[in-house]
Amino acid sequence: xxxxxxxxxxxxxxxxxxxxxxxxxxxxxxxxxxxxxxxxxxxxxxxxxxxxxxxxxxxxxxxxxxxxxxxxxxxxxxxxxxxxxxxxxxxxxxxxxxxxxxxxxxxxxxxxxxxxxxxxxxxxxxxxxxxxxxxxxxxxxxxxxxxxxxxxxxxxxxxxxxxxxxxxxxxxxxxxxxxxxxxxxxxxxxxxxxxxxxxxxxxxxxxxxxxxxxxxxxxxxxxxxxxxxxxxxxxxxxxxxxxxxxxxxxxxxxxxxxxxxxxxxxxxxxxxxxxxxxxxxxxxxxxxxxxxxxxxxxxxxxxxxxxxxxxxxxxxxxxxxxxxx
Length: 325
Fold this sequence. Notes:
Blueprint: H1 2-30, H2 33-41, H3 48-58, H4 74-77, H5 80-84, H6 102-137, H7 142-156, H8 159-173, H9 189-219, H10 222-229, H11 234-245, H12 247-254, H13 258-263, H14 266-272, H15 277-286, H16 290-318
Helix pairs in contact: 1-16, 2-3, 6-9, 7-9, 8-9, 10-11, 12-16, 14-15, 15-16
């Protein structure tokens, strides 16, 4: 087991290097430092002198990958790649354009993102699995057919509709909760109720339909027919056999959500004024703060790789037949 974990961690290194190189190419080759300076300075203040000054103040006046004018290791270290991208591997994210420390901002904003994403993830999964089991129990009936129709309808509605409609109905008309804002104390609950509710409702359609497919696939296998032949009740078959054997695909689907738990929801946080990592990334894109965007892309890829590793390890817990060698 330990050897498997070490190998997977070693495999992650070339993946992170590849993500880092692709991000670097997109930011500094496709979009050169001169282009970045022009966007930051604005059309009225763009002069060759202003561009050079902007680049020098932020360390963008160095060569991209190789500094032939330097000596020794400085040929590699005294470059934009080493200063802006290679340091991400030691979690040195540097400073944003407004001089704020990016690592400190990530640590501060991770709490609000988790406060929103964790309840949506847990409550949503519980509701979706329960509804899917209920529909699978009444398979091939009107309940099953109309539930699938309702799920498809819910999937067809944009998340923006749920957000805007929820804010108008619950906050403006009924005045039950604030329309936006955030508080880290006990009063913060009232700010999270509506975003969590919208996050759960908007995911019911796709989640229930996907889990229903998993359960119906399991219900057609031989071990389910054997359990029924032994006289087990349908609820016992569903919860004791079908649900247990469907845990592996459920865990596989859940790993996709793990990076979002930390990175935050881009749209929801922006609309509800939650100071999480999602709104932080959106604000950075709008302000063309490339240092923040690079850091968030790197963090997202790292969390996704760790999520895949945790998923493989969790397989051994739900299915003892799996051995990680």
